[in-house]
Amino acid sequence: MIKVGDTLPAATLMEYSEVEGNGCSIGPNPVDVAKASAGKTIALFALPGAFTPTCSAKHVPGYVEHAEAFKAAGVDEIWCVSVNDAFVMGAWARDQKTGGKVRMLGDGSADFAKATGLTLDLTGRGMGLRSNRYSMLVKDGKVASLNVEAPGKFEVSDAATLLAQVKG
């Protein structure tokens, strides 16, 4: 399992962005984790799936709500990573109104989740291999803090906890 001090694994996430007005939607576009995190401070949180109850009601809304506070504390970007395809993540971004606040990144084949060692097997619930619920502060591609939830819990990966670590 990834730990504090480790470099984020080499992986490519996918992003789908809506463009308002006369433009076409953009994506899905590959996001090289190493390149996208280089020289930046990122508040990254991961969760089992888009449109699932805790993820939609609490996890994403907390980061959207605290986006300005994260930026004020020196965070360059907030990333939400889920084992869903980029199109689902784009639809979820619309639903959660994350535009300009949280980058919604799809890990469709769970490659990033597997590489971090933070997988969750939900095959028994018909969801297959997913990401565990966690948050991490990433500085220049390295993990500065990591908060991994116990199965079925939502106690340490919330926005308020990570924001306190950013400020601390």
Quick structural overview:
With 168 residues, the protein is an alpha+beta fold. The protein contains 6 helices and 9 strands.
Give a written overview of the molecule:
The chain has helices at 33-37, 53-65, 67-72, 86-96, 111-116, 159-167; strands at residues 12-17, 26-32, 41-47, 77-82, 103-106, 119-122, 128-131, 134-139, 142-148. It is an alpha+beta fold and 168 residues long. It has a seven-stranded mixed beta sheet with strand order 2-1-5-4-3-8-9. The protein has a two-stranded antiparallel sheet with strand order 6-7. A hairpin with an 8-residue loop joins strand 1 and strand 2 (26-32). The mean pLDDT is 92.
How are the SSEs ordered, and which strands pair?
Elements: E1 12-17, E2 26-32, H1 33-37, E3 41-47, H2 53-65, H3 67-72, E4 77-82, H4 86-96, E5 103-106, H5 111-116, E6 119-122, E7 128-131, E8 134-139, E9 142-148, H6 159-167
Parallel strand pairs: 3-4, 4-5
Antiparallel strand pairs: 1-2, 1-5, 3-8, 6-7, 8-9
